[in-house]
Amino acid sequence: MKIVTAVQKPILLAMGFLFFILSSFCFSQTAVTAQTAPQRIASLNICIDQLLWELVPHERLVSISYLTANPMWSPIAAQVKGIPLNHGLAEEIVPLKPDVIFAGEFDAPDAIALLERLGHPVTRLPLPRKLEDINTQILQLGELVGATAKALSITQKSSAQVAELQAANKTQQPLTAFWYSSNGVVIGDGTLEHELMLLAGLRNLAAERGMFGFNQLDLELLLSSKPQVLIIEEGNAEAFSLAREYLAHPALANAGFKIVRLPAGLSGCAASVLGDVAIALKQELAK
């Protein structure tokens, strides 16, 4: 049996007391973190709304963008009924006394300036410009609302789905493709869509033409390029009459290339739909 000397005993007591203090401090820090997570959350941005819907209990959302309640723009429109809506106006937000207000990079500058003058700081989240930015945004938002573990789970799932897309087409010969948006717009280099096309083993003909971002392309030029694949977001096909006219054109309908239809939202709210789009693209290309 080990004997504790008179010299060792005070040291052990001091160490025990220190351990107790440190344990209490760590516990209190965790408790404070849980307690100080914002309970009344307002958002001026449809994309942030969709992430918050996944991250926090819905009763903590005191206001969301009116666009989030519009099924033309939002996949969760039917689910958000009853939650107060805002149109990006300060007078809609202030009476709700939110603990935190979120906005996108380009949302309502006048309203945000007024809110901040009235003592209501607004947290702006930058627009994701690359695939890696999406996970960064989700994790940042999760940390701000006290939902770090949930945010990590979402990013891990999304990353796995993107990896599945890349693995499925790694050994195949690249197919030529256009990502076709509303109003006859094709999507070129410097976009999330372009990155996904490369991961899917596709050659983006818009990027090969030197196009950057979003560009309108005449139907005749699109047909003369003879893409093997035409990617269309379903929401665009349903919501915009001009895009539907393009898609219904006899020349396009009889062109003979593969039309891949994807869930809507990547161009608008990439963070909330990336995984779904990646899986749908993998499945459609496998047909």
From TrEMBL:
PROSITE patterns named among the record's database cross-references: FE_B12_PBP
Source organism superkingdom: Bacteria
Domain Fe/B12 periplasmic-binding residue range list: 40-287
Protein's recorded name: Iron complex transport system substrate-binding protein
